[in-house]
Amino acid sequence: MLNKIWSFFILISIILGLCTGKYFLVNEAIFSSIENTVSLIITLFGSICFWNGIMNIVRNTSLIEKIKKMLKPLIKIIFPDIKEGNSAYENISMNMASNLLGLGNASTPCGLKAMEQLQSENKNKEKLSNDMMLFMLINTASIQLIPTTIISIRMGLRFEESIRNYNWSMVCKYSNFYIYVIYNKKLF
Predict the structure, then answer these.
(1) In a domain, 3, yes or no
(2) I need a surface site. Which of 20, 32, 116, 124 has the fewest CB within 10 A?
């Protein structure tokens, strides 16, 4: 669907450019947007590689145990049905840790593994379990202490104040998190 929408926008731009005699502006816009896109991708790629490497180092050291201990009280409250020795527990704690550090892209593999493990333990394979639903909602809220991905994007787009409006975005994210948890615990 999105491909059709973008194709429609591009086609309309070209037609209007030809009709108004300003087709050269369409051509300039295409090439300048390609240049900006490549620059942004290179910036994000470096950030993603760095933080994915850090998360792999964390996973292969004793630091994972320290992170799990730090997050244990929170995970016990939010996911009381998941046992500590469960493999989903480790992936959930790694996912939450990387989200807290603002490493949304680095948290994705851990999140996918956690969802697979939660699904394998799910009794009704046709529906999401409460733990799966809550885990997905928490990831959607994207609680972050340091929004590294957002900072990387804004730096890649050459914003002068790459951390501007940080406080308001955090208020929204924490509000979403608490609403999701309370909603899930009360209704399900």
Answers:
(1) no
(2) 124
What does the pLDDT look like over 1-25, one tens digit per residue?
788 998 898 888 888 888 888 878 8
164 is a domain residue: yes
Residue 182 within any structural domain of the chain: yes
Give residue-wise pLDDT tens across range 18-47. 888 887 887 788 788 888 888 878 877 887
**CB count in 10 Å sphere of residue 136:** 14
The whole-angstrom separation of Cα 179 and Cα 143 is 13
Report how many domains make up the chain.
1
102 close to 145: Cβ distance less than 8 angstroms: yes
80 to 8, 84, 130, 133: CA distances (angstroms): 49, 10, 11, 14
Task: Supply the pLDDT for residue 38.
Answer: 86
182 is in which domain, residue-wise?
A: 46-187
Residue 15 lies in a domain: no
| pLDDT tens figures, 105-140 | 777 888 899 999 999 888 888 888 888 888 888 887
